Amino acid sequence: IALAREAYRRGAEVTLVHGPLNAKPKLPRQMKRVAITSAADMREAMLKRFAEKPEVVIMAAAVADYRPAQVASEKIKKSTGPNSLELISNSDVLVELGELKGKSAAPFLVGFAVETGSQEELIAEVQRKLARKNADLMVGNLAQDSFDKDTNRVCLVRRSGEAVCLETARKSIIARSIFDGIVQAMKETATSPAEMSA
Ligand code: CTP
Asked: How far, in Å, from the CA of 92 to the mean position of ligand 1?
């Protein structure tokens, strides 16, 4: 929500694809909103918007990695229920978008990753994840800094491997820093000699 607000504040035409929200956030009327409830719906909504050639795509959602193999239409009785649930993998939306993007500069693809461990481990894991998912920028944070908190502490990792860790701040401030990072990286990509000669 903070990222969508910040993008809008900067003059972008924003489409917010979101899952169920606890509170009803106040958002500008002009902001397009797509409400979804499942990972499959998220995938469909993102693929549709991706085809509209956005300049920037930010995957901040914690999309579920798995879904139950079987969905019961009626109550499962304890006496007949299983002791464990079989799960099947959901599609990784960011991976799919990264594949569609391929080697092209647009859209600028931003991913998120929450990890546990030290800051060094976080940066190393985020660098690996960024490469695996073909993102341009990845925002990493540690579970202990973010869960159940109004504030967060994030590290921005670029395609070059460069990592910048920001001070603990409220999410609205972090959203500004993330967009500063996006704008800076997009400018550098547009003017880098490798891109110009490509
Ligand atoms: N993501 C996604 N679709 C999924 C799962 C995650 O698009 N089904 C995106 C998230 O929106 C986020 C990034 O991928 O931008 C986070 O990936 P994460 O869950 O941390 O990585 P995994 O590949 O699932 O690796 P692991 O959980 O093993 O660390």
From this structure: 7
AA identity, residue 198: A
For 157, the 3-state DSSP assignment is: strand
d(CA 193, CA 191): 6
Q: Specify the DSSP class assigned to residue 23.
A: S
CA of 60 to the centre of ligand 1 (A): 9
Which residues of the chain have a pLDDT value below 70?
A: 192-198
- The CB of 94 under 6 Å from ligand 1? The reply is yes
Looking at residue 190, its amino acid is: A
Please write the tens of the pLDDT for every residue from 1-37. Answer: 999 999 999 999 999 999 999 888 999 999 999 999 9
Q: What is the rounded CA–CA span in Å between residue 139 and residue 76?
A: 40
| Pocket lining: 177 vs ligand 1, CB cutoff 6 Å | no
Distance 139 CA to ligand 1 centre (A): 12
**Assessment of whether the complete model's pTM goes beyond 0.85:** yes
Distance in angstroms (rounded) separating the CA atoms of residues 38 and 97: 17
Give dist(CA 135, CA 57) in Å, integer: 10
